[in-house]
Amino acid sequence: MSAVKQPGRILSGMRPTGRLHLGNYVGALENWVRLQDQGWQNFHMVADWHMLTTASEDTSRLQADIWDMVLDWLAAGLDPGKSVLFIQSEVKEHAELHLLFSMLVSKARLERIPTLKEQIRDLHLDEQTISYGHLGYSVLQAADILIYKPSHVPVGEDQVPHVELTREIARRFNFVYCRERAPVFPEPEAALTEFARLRGLDGNRMSKSVGNTILLTDPPAEIERKVRMAYTDPKKIRATDPGRPDADLSELDEEGRPLHTGCVVWEYHRKFNPAEADDIAARCRAGTLACVPDKKHLAKVLSDALAPIRERRERYAADPDLVRDIVADGNRRARAVAAATMDEVREAMNLKLAGALAR
Fold first, then answer.
1. Contact, 247 vs 233, CB < 8 A?
2. What homologous superfamily does CATH list for 220-316?
3. pLDDT (tens digit, 9 = 90+) per residue, 68-118?
């Protein structure tokens, strides 16, 4: 982002999984708010159709999860006057563009997407059980992005291959259908956040299903309880033992994995308490800082950092009509841009005349 001379347009979104945690904030929300305040045109999508790729058989909590996530977006600082917040399924043009894009990419190309391979492995799927929609979700993602013609797509490192596929589809469409006219689609760039990933309290990938997260809505007492369980250097047993806040990748377990991957408490200090982080690390290494008071201090830091978010959320939650109006307006604004793009797409593909004759 630092090389960009002036703000452009971004498209980014999340699958609605309910209340958000610190990883969501650090990996996406914080960056979204910063960009909107710098004058970027922000489009943020509640990706409810994408939820169906892995959870189509139980949608009982979908609407409640959408509501909780939108509240957290607003609480984190997204301003509906500056950013467009909308529901994917309320903009039907996404589905049309997805269908058209699906003609431009091969099954073999989709199977090379790294995150798809990971999902197939983690969900124990194979060619007989993976759904057509799951295989093609990255094409839908390309449609989600390109229909708003963004210049950049803020993503984590694991999503960069999806942006590259999006760029490939844009090039393919422009090459096939725009030889005698201006290209319809730009090729958006992936924009990585500076602090792209925050580990869970246990040192592993942050996940609500694992229970290693701190939610943006957690009260101070709950934050303190959770931080007490945070992973620290396993060799720092006594308060006077010298600690190793940084990762030590030299010691491996029986399966070849690092025994010590860095202190989560210090990692959180680096993000939310940068003014003290270096001093905390130095005192830890010198054996003059014990883990228990350090964790207590971090809990206070996190509680103070999240206090404005909790307060804003309470205000929005107390006025549900306002939140519904914000989403309805975002849907309307998103549809206007998507409809204009689809007019260009149909014209480039010679689909406009066919539509006129059908009427």
1. no
2. Tyrosyl-Transfer RNA Synthetase (1.10.240.10)
3. 999 999 999 999 999 999 999 999 999 999 999 999 999 889 888 887 777
